Amino acid sequence: MKRSLLLLSAFAFSVFLLSFKAEKNNAVPKATIKTLIIDPGHGGFDGGARGTFSSEAAVSLQVSLKFGKAIEREFPGIKIIFTRTTDIMPGNKRTKDEGLKYRANLANESGGDLFIAVHCNSAPHIRHRELTGYKNTVVYTGKGKKRKKSTRKVPQYRYWTSPNPASGTETYIWAVSKNDAKVNSINKTEFYGEIDSTSDGTALELPDPSDPAEKARMLIYAQQYFRKSLNLADLVEREFEHTGRISRGVKQRNDAGIWVLQATGMPSILVEIGFISNRDEEEYINSDKGQDEIVEDLVNAFRVYKQKLESKSINTAP
Ligand SMILES: [Zn+2]
Asked: How many whole angstroms from 243 Cα to the centroid of ligand 1?
């Protein structure tokens, strides 16, 4: 009797567990976007890249605010959180790296479902060298009696720089693959020659894959967010292309500047909306027409991404 009671209660308990599990599954919220974090790059003492008449911080802020408004109009249910809405370093922080940490913490603490950073690209002036002629220079060779005087022709150069013609858009995702070996191979000191750097990269430590906690976080990012981020980044670049922009494609980057992307526990992208160092593009990204087009492209990409997410057609399996 005692034994059967025990069996019965064990049975009842497992039924309870099963029903609890089933209820829990039913309670899983539908994949969607409730909170969107919009991060205008730079700000305050950090103006970012400079064009001939505008700064990256100012243009990024204008486009970000317009993008937020457009999302608000079309999706009134979505909560939008800006990392800054004025010309300040987010959180009024004193260094770029503290600002980056503030952005990531704000995104995480707000329970963001998606993080979109807006930046402008910049390419350094191209250096040129032209041979202008030769100059005779007296040189001495040998020692003592063998010392000889001779003249040598030394080439003379003229140096100058010209604006870099680089133009177009790029969308970045954090460079982590689901592949464990690749996670381990991330080199903390390796930079990929990016032209726009959000951080000075000195004080902010990049994630250390030899630290188990960091490694776990990177693997989670790789498995859960990488495909979603890649998917959205691809949609954004395709929209830019449709608008007639030069799309330089989706790129991966591992510098501290987009450390913020993997530090946020959500899919995240960094959009370079154009080259502020290119005069024509600087005018475009500052113009109402240009900004409206960029915002429309971002909203279009966001809409498709959201639909895909809700219909679960983004393959997030590792
Ligand atoms: Zn930037």
From this structure: 22
Mean pLDDT score of the chain: 81
Ligand 1 midpoint to CA 22 (Å): 46
**All structural domains of the chain with their residue ranges:** 31-123+165-310, 126-161
Query: From CA 106, how far away is CA 91, in angstroms rounded?
Result: 9
How many whole angstroms from 272 Cα to the centroid of ligand 1?
A: 8
110-124, 147-161, 213-227: least confident range = 213-227
Nearest Cα to Cα of residue 230 among 284, 296, 177, 273: 177
Instruction: Give the fold, CATH level 3, of 31-123+165-310.
Output: Aminopeptidase (3.40.630)
- What spacing in Å lies between the alpha carbon of 303 and ligand 1's midpoint? 25
Q: How far is the CA of 307 from the centre of ligand 1 (A)?
A: 29
